[in-house]
């Protein structure tokens, strides 16, 4: 049976301005970036330098962008970069980054300079959406001259210290709405047919095809397995269409795809994915899994 076509656009025809406007008119604010994210950043003022690195002007809304930086930032030290909320709807990416900042960051004082960017895409956070208002996916937009303001702002923030980044962990989720909403919308936007797939039940990582670090990925998987379950391969030996190269690990070409985890040449890079819709996981567990992944990544980078 052929899946129904997305309700915006014409099958086989990429969207133009009219279709993007029709899609945008359907989006509604469902939670507050100020109440749920900025308030948490404010609570951490005594522990970090809070760095404003831009603002998103999406009339009538304006979103200030903030990062948390080590107060004893030293240009001679390696940097650990933690990013969350590149896809704003992926809640534990945001709150996992904040949880790490609040509960674990002090353990790395004097050993690494920390730059924590909890919510790269606040418009998407408020609307629980993958895209920005331009119908662009920020996590396919990390390249020079990016048309996604969220991605361009993060690239500008990181540029002055990019050569010092030793480890970068980018926190994501794979949700049921990937299959029910976001993949069909992507296919419609690009004028392609939608082929239904599956959603992996559990945590997994995305390594870099061009510079794989299997021992690093394994260290993160082992740490997270103490908090939540690891996604198994499907019957084809894959997770979301990519071959499983080790338990809970697949690989993408991070840079060519414009993914956040590819914005530096850090030797240790990964993208986390948790499954918040699993009957075997809770929001608390997802946040804890993200924080555990960050700690394991930083510990490995310090030891090697």
From TrEMBL:
CDD domains named in the record: M14_REP34-like (cd06231)
Record PROSITE patterns: PEPTIDASE_M14
Record carries keyword Metal-binding: yes
Cofactor(s) the protein needs: Zn(2+)
Domain annotation Peptidase M14: ranges: 29-304
Keyword check for ATP-binding: no
Coiled coil: none
Protein name (database record): M14 family metallocarboxypeptidase
Organism this protein belongs to: Castellaniella ginsengisoli
